[in-house]
Design brief:
The complex is a heterodimer of chains A (327) and B (234). With 327 residues, chain A is an alpha/beta fold. Chain A has helices spanning 44-51, 74-81, 99-109, 114-127, 143-155, 173-190, 201-207, 225-230, 235-241, 243-248, 270-278, 309-318, and strands spanning 2-13, 16-28, 33-37, 59-64, 67-68, 84-88, 161-165, 193-198, 210-215, 218-224, 255-262, 283-292, 295-304, 322-326. In chain A, the strands form three sheets. In chain A, strands 6-7-8-3-9-10 form a six-stranded mixed sheet, sandwiched between helices. In chain B, helix 2 packs across helix 5, helix 7 packs antiparallel against helix 9 (190-218) and helix 8 (177-186) packs antiparallel against helix 9. Classes of the chains: A alpha/beta (327), B mainly alpha (234). The interface between A and B is medium-sized, with 30 and 27 residues.
Amino acid sequence: MIQLIDLCKTYPSPEGEVVALQDVSLTIPDGTIYGIIGLSGAGKSTLVRCINLLERPTSGQVLIDGEDITALPRKKLLELRRSVGMIFQNFNLLEQRTVEANVRFPLELVHMPREETDARVSELLELVGLADKAKSYPSQLSGGQKQRVAIARALATKPKYVLCDEATSALDPATTDAILDLIKDINRKLGVTVVVITHEMRVVESICTHVAVIDNSRIAEEGSVSDVFSFPQSDIAKQLIIPNLIRSLDGGDGTKLRLVFNGEQSDEPIISALAMECRVAVNILYADTKNIDGKTFGHMVITVPAEKSDTVRRYLDEHKVSYREEV
Amino acid sequence: MSTLFSQLWSNGGFWIGVLETLYMTAASTLLAYIIGLPLGIVLVITDRDGLTPVTWLNKILSVFVNLIRSFPFIILMVALVPVASFLFHNSVGNGVMIFMLVIASAPFVARMVESSLKEVDKGVIEAARSMGANTFEIITKVYLPEAKPSLIVGAVISTVTILGYSAMSGTIAGGGLGAIATRARNVYADDVIWLCVALTVVVVQVIQEVGMLIARKVDKRRRVSVHRKKTKIK
């Protein structure tokens, strides 16, 4: 388990101190894929670097499995970093080393015997699907392949935790999906706890179990992905999760309701049924839903005439559709 | 043809001059790197955003390097004559010349090394840190190997510069093509001077071309894939 307690980080600058993190407290339970989402400059990259102390927090504690690592002597800290793998937006591979030599790098640092290393390297390349590229150099690989190498390298020392800093931000959508699948796989098969830093909603949506929204150096909101996504509380979370929605709410009369589909509803055409059964004219202001495995996920904003609003609410309750009245 | 020319031609003086120049250049470059390489590494890692920032040390070294580098070589050389005679009880000869060349070029080499190492992607250094590499491991396993092509290019430039210095120092100490040219100037043997120039040009070209070839050969970025593609098209 990773716990961040009252983390603060400020940088000196000619115009005074710049605050990167302020009173950040988070608990990242083992086995989760924990998303940290925020806009550029919100402090998320600093936050993830505080977890393995690539950046030292100005104050606060970082507990990994209960141990405060900010107090560790340097040698112990270097050892600890081997149990926390990290992957980066720009892959950060050693350009002058082959794929297999890149994966071997962290094993060289722990002085693993040669034969054991070779076996481990081929096992890892197998895992990320790059066994045939062992002798290639990074410059011969595509972005997605480079990130696979970086993942293999991050997993080499069998870390308990993997930190992903914008790991898919430099990749195209299809490659992003493939890399996210791989991360999900690793989490499931190897039981590795993954911390995902991103500015892309769909990354959190597709792999994370938990999410923290960071804004202006502070944690704005935190919780399970389904909770935060269904009913974001903070302005920043609303803006990130439902950006168009907020704008569309400006128009329309009557009672505005935001419906949330979280996969628990049956796949019947619920709006048409609502209109017919309650004899109400429904105006759809916004809809962003998708069908995954026959279940519906997403949001919809509708307006119904104020006098019919109670009937509509009752209908929605019966059909297990969560909703909020929006003003 | 001047008397000096025929004399040097018949007793192999030109050949000896080339060999002496090569020997002094090679020895000076090697020694300059023995000092300049660690100095360059220290300049990089003690830098404000380096691995182990030690700002005062960095400042001192930097000022020291700049100080020596700001001397025109010819002046530094003259200034070093008394130092050399004190150290070696001698102010001429190849040893003195190598001493002068090393003093003059080590700071230059340090700056070359520094700029090569600073080209290494900061992200790669960060990745190595995230894997628990210590400073020494980052230098030996990341900085130096990743900067290798650039370091070789730097070494080629340094060698050519030192070769130029060695010709200059031939005016006051040591041998080589510079010394022969100086002698020729005193007896107005222009043909000797021109041959010395031609030989220097050849030596420089060879060093430059071979060096660049090696630098390209060891670089694993891009080139390999381009090469592969070409063969495929065929």
